[in-house]
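Hi C.,

You asked whether I'd gotten around to modeling the 336-residue construct. I have! Everything is below, sequence then structure, no commentary in between.
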Amino acid sequence: MPENNDVLTVVVYRQGEELIDLRYHQETEDLWATNKEIATLFGVDENTISYHIGNVYRDGELDEAATTQEFEVVRNEGNRVVRRTLNHYNMDVIISVGFRVNAKRAVAFRQWSNKTLKAYMQQGYVINESLLRESPEKVNELAAKVRAIRSEEKQVYEKVRECFKISSSDYDPSSQEVRSFYALLQDKFHHAVTGLTSSKLIQDRADHTSENMGLYSMKGSFPTMAEIKVGKNYLKPDEIYKLHLLSEQFLLYAESTALRGKNMTMGSLHKQLDRLLTLNDYDVLPGYTDYIKDQAIEQARQEFEMYKKRRHIENQGYIYDPELMALGEYNHLFED
């Protein structure tokens, strides 16, 4: 049964003038919709949908536990944007109910959904081209998401490696020089958008008194030891966006250079990145003055231990105070 909202993707289905948000679940490769969305989909009221869903389960046509799941959704309610946990029904329920209330629409939806699911399974995405052409805002949102994926460090480094394979004269993937090249590349990007290297970001922003210990990027609801050691995880949303833009420009240069068959070296790529940063009016990292990675990791580890204690204190109903912590006022909470 699906339980993780992180593996949900919103898919928009067009029914006449209506745009209906459905959710595609990557692990089950299934589409899910709320009672209200199903009602809009088939042009009837919510009570009618609830009645037919009840009959589907009472008749034993489908198993309720296997075809329903609660997901958190963000939606507009008046002038507010709120998060609600709502019951969702999978494709089997949607189609079954559809044939009971509007067979023509059910057939059209089944054809669309089969095509959409196939695209997701084969390509990992599906694009509603007609909708995008009508909405520049949606195009910008899509471009930002693609840029974010391309700008992830793993993607950047993989693309640079591909370019090096084509046109590099000094690239040995196993050498220390190459590892240092990527570390400096990362620090130049971080320094451009924050004025700090990756290690300095950790030192300056790892703080047990801050929400999520100062992290803005993490997978779960509680930071992990691995996540607190990554400088990029401390970048604020506007800094991440700037990083994405710079990374995209850098990748376009590397790809263009490789396609033209021009020779590339690690030194020439760094010089080009420096020129790109200057062109965008960002400071260029002049070089390293000292080595602080180990100190930064150790400081983050200590802050993490304090953060876990702080959360334990707050979970016991107390208000955390660093001074009281230093005086031992909370020691009794850790006696067990």
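If it helps when you're writing up: The first helix runs from residue 35 to 42.

Thanks,
B.
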